[in-house]
Amino acid sequence: MEEPLRRSSIGVASPWGAYRLAAVLMVPVLLGAWGWQVASERKAAHQARFVDDLDHPGAMAREPGFEYWGAEDASIVPPLVSPPLEFARIGGSTCTPSEHNDEVQSCRSPVDGVPEKRIVVVGDSHMQQFLAPLGPIARQRNWEVTSVLKGGCPFSSDSEFMPGDPGCLRWNADVLAELLVLRPDLVLANGTRDVRVGLTEVTPPGFVAHWRTLAEAGIRVAAVRDNPRFPFSPSLCAAEHGPEAPRCGAPKAELYAADPPYALLDDVPGTVTFLDFGDCYCTADFCPPVIGNVFVYLDDNHVTATYQGTMSAVVERAPEDLLDPQEGEAGGRATSGTDLVAGPRGATYWPRERVSDRWTREFAVVTLGDVARHAGVARSTVSYVLTGNRSVSPQTRSRVERSIRALDYARSAAAPAERVDRMALVLSESLAPRSSTRLVDAVVDAADRHGLDVLLVTADRGEAGLRRAARKGQVDGLVAVDVQAHDPRLPLLRASRLPVVAIGAPASTDGVLRVDFDLAAAMAHCLDHLVGLGHRSVGFLGAPSSAYRRETGFAGRTMTAFAAAALRRDVEHSARPVDGPLPRALAGLLGELPGATALVVHNESVLGDVPAALRALGRHVPHDVAVVAVCADEVAERLSPPVTSVHLPVAEAGDRAVRVLVAALAGQPAPGPVLVAPHLSPRRSSVARARAG
Known about the structure:
Helices cover 34% and strands 15% of the residues.
């Protein structure tokens, strides 16, 4: 029988030597996240949440009676190389501009028919963080969650971040008008800001002014107390010095005053309830960088979507009580009892330790997730108790069994006990970061639509991480990325006896379903385009030689497809990997193919430098040499000149892979290989070849 791991008070269990090098290498990435975050409001990437993962309980480690049952060598997540994945959004949301102001973008989560409740999350990027825990709640409760966000612009009658900023003032006025028309059941907004060492936290008058306007319209507000801000990146510090280094956090008493600033206000409307999640970010005495084997912070002030996602069980309880007040409560606001506590100035407070479990008794169908929340454990732990697939401590088993009896939970015959409604996404180290972001985003969006959570297995977790993900009771199926002909992961994937979808080209599809890019079609598009412009001598610049030796990143198959397409069209051709400086590789290629008038480039890291390298050799794009690249459209469009590109639809491949997996889980017949078609977009880097004479 397993014993609970001896762990720190914040649920940390991980070796740290490997992170010290990563800390040095990732300084530019994490420092750059600050400047990037405002743009992320418009281009939000995806939260890859580790949901119900025994190794990474995150905020669940702060729950009373928590016991750690994960692996002793569990890694800390999310990987430090994934900042773009860690700004939250709700998968499948539809975003549209306001009819009155194009700058006001609202994104609505998908619902089935008429939503049970309508919630609007409004404000800056600190409110965006709450989309991570609200996503699964909205999906389960059929709530419509609308986000109206602007970086550096909390919901206020004033411009708080940049005083007097006309853009923020105009945006806030228009958002207020939108809310008065929409009349949602609840508005979630910033309740405080500037939680820093020195007790600088405030509730600005502009916040209260907007709350008062909403109160006059009968619209209820949940005002959220802010998370801490630091003069450094706690995660980067922890990677270098360890998760319990005092320098990587701050004493709670130096960040949060015993009485929050809103408790001292006289003019807060009675329709406002304050939500304080400080206990999720801090222990009783200290606000650390890592909790439950999860990095809390993305940079110096933003919480990772991975960590915020582990707060779902805590976040869910507050809106449920606010949206379903007990009968007889004036104005729909609880002012007494054990659920919500009336504040000294008439406003309502929600201390997380005083939340009831009333919501679990109000639903006719009780789910396994309901039992998990009631018992304060992971959903997989409930599954272990029901199936006996893994040992559970007597105390935890007793707590789960009490919750089962209290909720009158009955396991559905239509849902086999081993189903945990979770899939694993197994990444490859060879996948480019941009492609990785798009792929993870697409997979989680598709999984959301099918009611599946996603366990992300990064390459750095190695064989042990893959074994843990594939063991019985952890996931229902797996999607593996960039699978090569003799991929060392294949034996482990097949041994899991779970449905496995491989994005790539395994030598044998025995026991594996396959989704792949149509690389032959991609190269055919390139050559047909160039031949149509009169080019009969074409070179190919590829990835470094190491990629071909390791058979990674689709590199070898793309180069082979290029040669085959050129031969079929009787085109003179040569291909060369890029090792070392680009000018040297380019000079070598043109030395082998002196008459080349066109290049196909399959290497995003050097693509932007190709025009300059050609100019140094006396050739210019596009009149001397036409350039076509295999890359994402957004990369090609921002180069000078914009580059003709063949786009491999990574997002579509991820979506198709999930659909194939879901069909397999439903017992449908296995399809043959699913090939995702590329498309070519002509731009100014390729023109008709100038005729001699």
